[in-house]
Amino acid sequence: MKIIVTGGAGFIGGNFVHYMLNKYNDYKIICLDALTYAGNMETLEPVNCNPNFKFYKADIADREAVYEIFEKEKPDIIVNFAAESHVDRSIDNPGIFLQTNVIGTGVLMDACRKYGITRYHQVSTDEVYGDLPLDRPDLFFTENTPLHTSSPYSASKASADLLVQAYHRTFKLPVTISRCSNNYGPYHFPEKLIPLMIANALADKELPVYGKGENVRDWLYVEDHCSAIDLIIHKGRVGEVYNIGGHNERTNLEVVKIILKELGKSEDLIRYVTDRPGHDMRYAIDPAKIHNELGWLPETKFEDGIKKTIKWYLDNKDWWQHIINGEYKDYYEKHYSRK
Ligand code: NAD
Ligand code: DAU
After folding, report:
1. Which domains does the chain have, with CATH numbers?
2. Residue 241 β-bridge partners
3. CA–CA separation, 326 vs 265, rounded Å?
4. CA-CA distance, 281 to 325, in Å (whole number)?
5. pLDDT for 191-204, tens place per residue?
6. Which residues are catalytic?
7. In this model, does residue 339 exceed pLDDT 50?
8. From atom 28 of ligand 1, which residue's Cα is the shortest distance away?
9. Which atom of ligand 2 is closest in space to residue 197's alpha carbon?
């Protein structure tokens, strides 16, 4: 089995590459990544010498480059993680989100049609459903919740989902889509809530909480997301959408306070800052479909996962400090000029 993992130098894609190479010693995993600011070859350092792993630096929206890789590798499965993924950046600069998340998805599916694959899997997000009110804890996103996006990021992800469904209906492309809640764990880029707060707390810097910190996210340990995608690409029904989430709802303020407590730092470090425009209030996934159809259940409770994550950031300071001081950008040049 040969799998192309796009965006494999990013947070979830990187964890997925590690997960698949550990689990299947007869699978070839090909990572295709443009190495944007969010892509980091240091995340792939542990697998770089694995004979079952190969890396291509390429943009998913570059048709010629993508076709060339498909022609050469003849993959069975594509798992598309590649995306611009940060909501705040999409508010500052929406254009690149359309280019990568929409156009790039279209190019990948055209390559799948041209060269033939057994499965195209689109890694989507719960943000395509918009948000839920704080005063209705009985409501959850199901796969039938209408798409109702808030940010340029979520609109671009929803557009990509519609395109994937259209390629299935019109061209019979064998696709699946997963929509997951907020992930956390190792290799999470320190611009996102949890790693940013860990890094700032360790440096005794202020922790910027948007608005009143009341917004709720449904946190899932990244390895549980990987196991869900593994199940979907092997056993999921073609043409279907699967929600992924573990009923781990927390307000942002709760998360920040847990991090400060674990690190023995004072809550005085918290600073309330101007809210994110269009800020979604609450995300909450109903994972009944993936549980009932595929038997998936998350393994890591938030209380354990957050401790493991903090320990990982303490044990791997080089990884995130290289990002903060910009050194990680030189890694590709250094690493590949030696080859
Ligand atoms: P990330 O920003 O950490 O990583 C994205 C990766 O994609 C990087 O390695 C980057 O270099 C690569 N990339 C960006 N543009 C590219 C392009 N044009 N061509 C090739 N590679 C490109 O993102 P993440 O948090 O790991 O998210 C991965 C996927 O999962 C995204 O599609 C995101 O929408 C989705 N998702 C994320 C979360 C979450 O909590 N982080 C939750 C649900 C879904
Ligand atoms: O739900 C899935 C989504 O989760 C993914 O599709 C996105 O790619 C991923 O980035 C994430 O989106 P969020 O916007 O929820 O994640 P972020 O870490 O940016 O913010 C989490 C919450 O914390 C959100 O309510 C905004 C708040 N926040 C964030 C930052 C960076 C702060 O209060 N302060 C901050 O500095």
Report:
1. 2-187+220-248+278-301 (3.40.50.720)
2. 177
3. 26
4. 33
5. 999 999 999 999 99
6. 126-127, 153
7. no
8. 81
9. 36
